[in-house]
């Protein structure tokens, strides 16, 4: 028994010494702002910088990551729960060797798992934290009571909006609600589909002013991505736009955004400490 206990302690110590993946969730207040397209291309851009990336499609039943890359995934997260496959079994290799787990269909209670399934998910996910640099969750549009619990577990939240007034208001509303649940959550803001740099800056300023005035909260500005025909052409051809035309304005803007993110080129007062994803999962889902 002493040997087993000592081995367990050593395993735990080894886990602590390893570099654990950073977990990010990409969210939006409404659909149609390019959230999934951003998630996919952001993941690929990170991989181009030498990072090991897992993209997890959490828009269960309505996910479209596999459509955006033109590859039908044989398995999805549904098969993990319904057929007992492992998380590794259900992964698909994507562009630049990113790993992808698709959402599939027929699963509506991912956030209301039995304790047995939850424990199995936790155990296997723990292994993935040691195999990747980033695990990126592409969430469904908007938020639900259950998905909020999940969002509280990740290290960082990337909020996608566009200059449209409804998109700005919805993005603010999502941040307002999440802030009311946990004021310490860090928001990273991306304005997508801007026609001009000025339009993007004005949109970011409106959101920042509202956060400061009503929530006394600052968001980290990651940057803006221009409206560009390359994106729609790439979607039509089911190719990520950063692969379709790496020299386009939108691809260059995304790579610059990822460079800033990798280098954490924010204001000096910003620090983004990593949380403990698995401990947070137990806290918010199991209450312990």
Tell me what the structure shows.
The protein is an alpha/beta fold. It has a domain at 19-158 and 228-286: Rossmann fold, CATH 3.40.50. The chain has helices at 2-17, 35-48, 65-68, 77-82, 115-129, 145-151, 165-181, 197-215, 229-236, 241-244, 249-263, 277-286; strands spanning 22-28, 53-57, 92-93, 99-101, 134-138, 156-161, 187-194, 220-226. Strands 3-4-2-5-1-6-7-8 form an 8-stranded mixed β-sheet. α2 (35-48) packs across α11 (249-263) and α7 (165-181) packs parallel to α8. The radius of gyration is 19 Å and the shape is globular. The two termini are 27 Å apart. GO terms for molecular function: ATP binding; ATP hydrolysis activity.
Task: Throw out a few tags for this protein.
288 residues, alpha/beta, Rossmann fold, eight-stranded mixed β-sheet
* Main beta-sheet annotation: 8 strands, mixed
State the separation between the terminal residues, measured CA to CA.
27 Å
Strand percentage: 5-15%
Give the count of helical stretches: 12
Structural class: alpha/beta
GO molecular function: ATP binding; ATP hydrolysis activity
Protein name: MinD/ParA family protein
GO cellular component, one term: cytoplasmic side of plasma membrane
Keywords: ATP-binding, Nucleotide-binding
Write a short abstract of this structure.
The chain is of the alpha/beta class. It has helices spanning 2-17, 35-48, 65-68, 77-82, 115-129, 145-151, 165-181, 197-215, 229-236, 241-244, 249-263, 277-286, and strands spanning 22-28, 53-57, 92-93, 99-101, 134-138, 156-161, 187-194, 220-226.
């Amino acid at each position: 028994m002493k040997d087993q206990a000592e081995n367990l302690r050593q395993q735990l110590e080894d886990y602590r010494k390893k570099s654990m993946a950073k977990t990010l969730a990409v969210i939006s207040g409404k659909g149609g702002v390019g959230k999934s397209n951003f998630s996919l291309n952001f993941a690929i851009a990170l991989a181009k910088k030498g990072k090991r990336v897992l993209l997890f499609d959490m828009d269960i039943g309505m996910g479209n990551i596999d459509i955006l890359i033109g590859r039908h995934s044989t398995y999805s997260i549904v098969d993990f729960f319904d057929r007992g496959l492992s998380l590794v079994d259900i992964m698909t290799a994507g562009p630049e060797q990113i790993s992808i787990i698709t959402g599939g269909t027929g699963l509506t209670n991912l956030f209301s798992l039995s304790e047995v399934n939850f424990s199995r998910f936790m155990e296997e996910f723990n292994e993935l934290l040691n195999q990747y640099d980033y695990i990126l969750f592409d969430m469904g549009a908007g938020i639900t009571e259950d998905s909020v619990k999940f969002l509280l577990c990740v290290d960082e939240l990337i909020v996608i909006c566009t200059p449209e007034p409804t998109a700005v208001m919805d993005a603010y509303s999502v941040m307002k609600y999440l802030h009311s649940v946990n004021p310490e959550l860090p928001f990273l803001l991306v304005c997508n589909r801007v026609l001009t740099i000025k339009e993007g800056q004005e949109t970011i300023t409106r959101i920042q002013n509202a956060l400061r005035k009503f929530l006394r909260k600052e968001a980290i500005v990651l940057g803006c991505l221009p409206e560009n025909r390359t994106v729609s052409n790439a979607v039509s051809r089911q190719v990520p736009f950063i692969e379709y035309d790496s020299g386009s304005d939108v691809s260059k803007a995304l790579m610059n955004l990822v460079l800033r993110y990798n280098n954490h080129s924010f204001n000096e007062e910003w620090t983004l400490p990593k949380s403990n994803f698995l401990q947070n999962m137990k806290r918010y889902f199991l209450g312990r």
